Amino acid sequence: MPTNKTEKLFTKALAAARTPRGRAVVFGHSPRKGMSCPSAARLVGSIDRLSLKDANAIRKLCKTVDDPEALQSLIENHHPKTESYVQRLHSSPYGSDMWRRTVVLHAVNELVQGYGVESLGGKYEYINTGEMYADTLVFKPASNRLFVGSPGDIVERDSSL
User: Fold this and answer.
1) Rounded distance, CA 161 to CA 122, Å?
2) Blockwise average pLDDT, block size 10, the chain, 161 residues
3) Is residue 148 within 8 Å of residue 136, measured between CB atoms?
4) Do residues 118 and 125 make contact, with C-beta atoms less than 8 angstroms apart?
5) Contact in structure between 140 and 127 (CB atoms under 8 Å)
6) CA distances from 142 to 122, 139, 146, 156 (A)
7) Pairing relation of β-strands 124-127 and 136-140?
8) Residue 27's CB: how many other CB atoms inside 10 A?
9) 93 and 102 in contact (C-beta within 8 Å)?
């Protein structure tokens, strides 16, 4: 229970800033609406062997990343290899933003037929296709954005990696 005037005002402001789903809006930031993702056409045109069905599945995963129940249902019903991965974890990943994104990237890796999710200096994560200069899906956690790019090109452009 708030004890002083500042705490009371903060508690009141926080309660007023809740979204319809009960999530708090933190100091001017709007609640996330999923992971930013390229269009299905861009995905199909850029990623080898990716079907329109798989591109739409990637977009659906990106859209549900911030809804734990919807993501869990999607993984359980449509992504058996990722569901198997989730079952091997010590605890449920669905309660954590970071772990939900990890689950989504695991499912995207399966759809793209990649060789795993790799990190580039902690600034980016990408689907390993076996070729550093081939277009693949790259995730930038700082902007919550999944985009088409080449890990080799990113390393060349970003001297801090």
Assistant:
1) 9
2) 58 54 44 83 93 97 95 96 95 94 97 96 95 96 95 92 81
3) yes
4) yes
5) no
6) 10, 9, 11, 19
7) antiparallel
8) 8
9) yes
43 phi and psi angles, rounded to 5 deg: -60, -50
Structure tokens at 128: 């390993």
Q: Residue 11's pLDDT is what?
A: 59
Q: What is the pLDDT of residue 2?
A: 52
Yes or no: say if 79 and 110 are a contact pair by the CB < 8 Å rule: yes
**Token code pair at residue 62:** 């990106």
What local confidence, expressed as pLDDT, does residue 146 receive?
96
Q: Which residues contact 140 (CB under 8 A, 6 or more apart)?
A: 123, 124, 147
| 97-112 and 80-88 helices, crossing angle to 10° | 140
Q: Which two tokens stand for residue 161?
A: 């990696």
Of the CA atoms within 13 Å of residue 49, those in its CB half-sphere come to: 9
Q: Write the DSSP string, 111-126.
A: HHT-S-EEEETTTEEE
Q: Which of the 8 DSSP states describes residue 7?
A: H
Q: Which pLDDT value is given to residue 159? A: 84
